[in-house]
């Protein structure tokens, strides 16, 4: 009973220590060093007195300590991106592999952070570790930036006593995942932006340019060709109902986004449609397989049990269809089926992936085989994105020609007709 009571008391003390870590405030300070030289800097702390105490501890005489003014809109500092977390992962892995103590490593990385929000977060995590928490527990205070998969990998590394090795693996994993996401965004951004600009130019022509030509044609009293009459009718409709058109476009986008968030069936349907698109669907499919293989390889190498890892892997694929299939694979593996057999049943994995997984299971080198699969499909995604860019350029030129060029030509048709009759 005494032991149980002591454990409970220790747990309460650790919880209290973590609870005392509040949101830190950034202070700008000016101080004189031992030579009387004026020094300036910044420091996150709970209050100004702690800043002054820390400066005195470092042998400086504080002159002014002021709380940094908060911006008019939103919290200070930009949001913490996945790229920030990837860079942090590489930094902490390198320092720990070099023998730098964890708390000191967090302090060094936090001091070098330009993102104030991320800097405060790292200081908070450091103080939580100093209060007696494990690293995965401290990171658990920020589940958005450090997801379940990240924390599970860190936990596995702590349990096995190979945290520096696991952190290096996690850093590589985050960098590879960000590279794939960047490729997918690149594939989607270019055509979407070009089409958006084409749509905007068309609306400007219909609202401001076509009405000028319409007045000229009306004064001339000439009979208008069918294409010109169509463009003028579209312009008249836009002038009287532009707010309805814009409302329909914005409303449709918002409706699709909201429906995808609230309806699992609709989200599943949209994901299936995306996977069936020519070229783009192949990129998304190969990206999902690459993420699956690399994530499962990392978790398996870190010592996370296969069944336990599958749930985190399902959320890392970036595809609802593949996520559902991996959860089904998890259930199959949990009742004793081999991973390669469970993969084959889904019908979503190419035969090469299934065969390499089978070889990995039989040889006891599943993680190595999964990494080879990931590298192959990551390279395929890169090549497919380059191919997509090449294919889209002529298609986009055709669309621009039809939308903008066709509209301009239709406006000049009556002028050509009048010139021919003179």
From TrEMBL:
The keyword Cytoplasm does not apply. It is a multi-pass membrane protein. It is found in: Cell inner membrane. Coiled coil: none annotated. The chain crosses the membrane at residues 187-210, 242-259, 396-416. InterPro entries: GspF/PilC, T2SS_GspF/T4SS_PilC_CS, T2SS_GspF_dom, T2SS_GspF_sf. Its main location: membrane. GO terms for biological process: protein secretion by the type II secretion system. One of its GO terms (cellular component) is plasma membrane. The keyword Protein biosynthesis does not apply. Keywords: Cell inner membrane, Cell membrane, Membrane, Transmembrane, Transmembrane helix, Transport. Residues 88-211, 292-414 form the Type II secretion system protein GspF domain. Pfam families: T2SSF. Signal peptide: none annotated. PANTHER family: GENERAL SECRETION PATHWAY PROTEIN (PTHR30012), PROTEIN TRANSPORT PROTEIN HOFC HOMOLOG (PTHR30012:SF7). Belongs to the GSP F family. This is Type II secretion system F family protein. The lineage of its organism: Bacteria, Pseudomonadati, Pseudomonadota, Gammaproteobacteria, Lysobacterales.
